[in-house]
Amino acid sequence: MASLQGFHEISLAAPASKAVMTITSAAIRFNKATAAELGYPSHVRVLVNESAKQVAIQACSADEENAIKFSKPADKQTGSVSIKAPAVLVTICSFFELHNPSEDEIDYRSIQGVSQPDDKAIIFDINDAKAGTMKKRGRRKASEVPAANENEGEANQGE
Prior knowledge:
Elements: E1 20-23, E2 28-30, H1 32-37, E3 43-49, E4 54-60, E5 68-69, E6 81-83, H2 86-93, E7 105-116, E8 121-125, E9 130-135, H3 152-155
Antiparallel strand pairs: 1-2, 1-7, 2-6, 3-4, 3-5, 4-8, 7-8, 7-9
């Protein structure tokens, strides 16, 4: 047994997690797999361990203190879940320096979660965050939309 000192057995019960948390300056987004792993809870609590630099979300009931609306039922949750509560944004964003590189790009951090089924929670380790940029989504300003057929009126005036 001396030759196996320092080794530990790999638990086959530990599920591989597909949960991902994406942090931007405007929202904290969780992919649909996160909601599925937690059992599509209507509400969660967001927990922070500042010394270990970890964030966790834990399923809870709607009447618990600091409960945040999270998921729809499984058959109605079609996409990711966003949390925009100012207190949550400020706390989680304080771990990062997020700065948008240009007018049409957004700086983000993405973290794979580790499922904790016994606690109905998922833990995200800030040290595992991967940086990236993405194009802004949503409506464009009127000045950014290309004018369709701008010269069409001029071509028909000579007839």
